Fold:
Amino acid sequence: MQEINIPITPKTPLVKLNADTGQLELKGRSIPENSIEFYSPVFQWIDDYSMQPKPATELHIQLEYFNTSSSKCVLDILKKLQTLHQNNRTVAKVLWYYEEDDEDMLEAGEDYQAIIRVPFEMIKIEE
Amino acid sequence: MFDIYDFYEKMEDGKIMLSFKGEITSELLTSILRILETKLEHIGDEPKLRKKVYNVLVECLQNLYHHNDGVNILTNEDHKSALFLIGRNDQSNYKIITGNYILKKNVEGFKEKIDKINELSKEELKEYYISTLSNEEYSGKGGGGLGMIDIARKSGHKIGYTFNDVDDQFSFFSLMITVTI
Structure:
């Protein structure tokens, strides 16, 4: 399966999705005006990955900023992961990174944690 | 004649960091955000406040981009025109102001939405955000109401607003947002 590797831009994050390792990564900023357009290849990739997932899948999310339209897309990614996890197709885990002074980003992770039934690990990045 | 120095002084007294009136395009958003990010870094408020301001800015500007019903009726040109302004006083108190045309039939809906948000406590806002995020269908454009809740959460202040009657079809909708630590 094709690996996805989208480079970082001022408005969109680095996206690395690797089907061989089960490691998925979003890193940077996610503030595009049209989030659905940006995330649709990611949704497609996860749907394809869901046909033959690895025994363990880890989603690393390290966002500095994200807008509310991206927040819906992130939720959609997490829901796809949740479906795999709940059907015992993979053991999923979300690693949510936040900078130590960024309570808003920690809270954003906790918001998702309240919605999604997948284990979360909150990881503080020391400055 | 228009007094430019008077205008300059008014901006200086009002501690205006940036103001803009015109059509909000994607490229413009990118430029404004880049300029303001540099300014915010230069001012050197603590990173926590800087991030809050930047976050609120992104939502406000993208609101303008997505939800402007207006054709610019004052110049009669068929384009979207909006107003954006940000200021900061010496106490690191940021004010973000936006203005845009909206159809009169949408005024009541906006009022109710903001009034509802303004009544909620910090904890209630969090619950409202989570329920809106998890229940709502994709709107395709902005967050479909999520933006205003997010602005209220990040800013930590009530959202100020006014509606000015323009004609029988349009109102001018202004938002005033305060961001402090």
Summary: Helices of chain A lie at 35-49, 68-86, 103-115. Residues 28 and 63 of chain A are 5 Å apart (CA to CA).
